[in-house]
Amino acid sequence: MQAPTSNPKWSFLIDENLPSLLARALTTAGYAASAVLGSRLSGKHDQEVFTYARGRRQTIITRDTDFLKAAEFPVPHPGIIVVRIPGKIAPDDLIREVLRELSSLAGQSLAD
User: Fold this and answer.
1) Strand pairing partners for 80?
2) Which terminus, N or C, of the chain has the lesser number of Cβ atoms within 10 Å?
3) Which residues on neighbouring strands pair with residue 59, listed in sequence order?
4) What average pLDDT does the structure give for the chain?
């Protein structure tokens, strides 16, 4: 696991198409994070997940490219990160990649 490089202003909602362990790893790294899996949002439509995240000022992290449809997810919002890693990837490797990429964005706004 990487050393904490978090931006304390960032808060994440991990979509159910990603391992819920990602939320735990982000929290360990110093970010605020929760997961759709195991919550009342599990199985809900993308629009409901978006509305929930926006209301709580959380950036969504997902593999769902439907979230790239800007007309369906209008600004302002705290951000949407679509993870585009081709093929199958071990959860530990995916978590490592997400943490690395977030580290490279430190200090930037993820909004809109």
Assistant:
1) 60
2) N
3) 12
4) 90
Tokens for 81? 């990160």
User: Which tokens sit at 42?
Assistant: 């599990």
pLDDT at 67 over 90: yes
d(Cα 64, Cα 62) in Å, to the nearest integer? 5
Q: Give the residue from 108, 28, 26, 96 showing the smallest Cα distance to 60.
A: 26
Q: 13 - beta bridge partners?
A: 34, 60
- Strands 80-82 and 59-62, bridge-based pairing: parallel
Confidence of residue 88 (pLDDT cuts 50, 70, 90): confident
d(CA 80, CA 61): 6
What count of Cα atoms within 13 Å lies in the side-chain half-sphere of residue 27? 10
Q: Which CATH number fits domain 11-104: 1.20.950, 3.30.870, 3.40.190, 3.40.50?
A: 3.40.50
